[in-house]
Design goal:
Helix content: 10-25%
Largest sheet: 7 strands, mixed
Strand content: 35-45%
Distance between the termini: 25 Å
Number of helices: 4
Strand order of the largest sheet: 2-1-3-4-7-6-5
Number of strands: 7
């Protein structure tokens, strides 16, 4: 459910001028890697929940959402929780909280100011629908911009980036985290419970 909502929103804002690498709601991929001394260490990275099995198996897209100088920007959602507001017959009313994490390589987009975050945030807000809308099984979707989170917190600290990642949080790079609240309704009569798909081994760590 939260994954679907994230995909709906990212598809509405992916055409902002600075967009490069983007994803809906990410999941944390954990895998074993070899250290220089031969020991095994666990590493974690954010990965798009829409990643295909072939891309997952190749490992080619593990680093797509990691900031580096080859990218103009990175943008994705993190799940901050979903709660049921009420039930009226077959209608379920939900409220989902999402954090939009965005990193921007200002030289790559041709911007030479001190910070691009304000421009980027307004560009994103401008793309968000003003009125409630329906899409698929989700009705009366209403996206509310709650605010920008303080920059004294590193949004990438939860992942296994090497220490050099800290340089990408300083000028000439910029980043921000936006808190969004998404309210929507679902009709139980419209839901199609699909059969379970085969396990994707590289995403489960097996």
């Amino acid at each position: 459910m939260i994954t679907d909502i994230g995909n709906i929103i990212i598809d509405k804002i992916k055409d902002v001028p600075f967009a490069d690498k983007y994803a809906g709601v990410v999941k944390t991929i954990v895998y074993n890697d070899k250290a220089l001394n031969g020991s095994t260490i666990k590493k974690s990275f954010p990965a798009d929940c829409r990643m295909s099995l072939s891309a997952c198996q190749s490992g080619s897209q593990y680093l797509d959402l990691c900031p580096d100088t080859s990218k103009k920007s990175v943008m994705y959602f993190e799940d901050a929780g979903t709660r049921l507001i009420k039930r009226e017959g077959n209608y379920l009313y939900w409220s989902a909280s999402l954090d939009l994490v965005a990193w921007i390589n200002m030289p790559k987009i041709g911007f030479n100011g001190c910070s691009y975050a304000g421009i980027a945030i307004m560009s994103i807000i401008k793309q968000l629908p003003v009125r409630p809308f329906n899409q698929g099984d989700y009705h009366m979707i209403e996206i509310d911009f709650i605010g920008e989170k303080p920059k004294n917190q590193n949004p990438f600290s939860k992942y296994s980036y090497d220490e050099a990642i800290d340089q990408f949080l300083m000028y000439p790079f910029d980043y921000f985290v936006l808190a969004l609240q998404v309210n929507f309704r679902m009709d139980l009569r419209c839901l199609d419970i699909q059969s379970i798909s085969p396990e994707i081994v590289c995403l489960t760590g097996s």
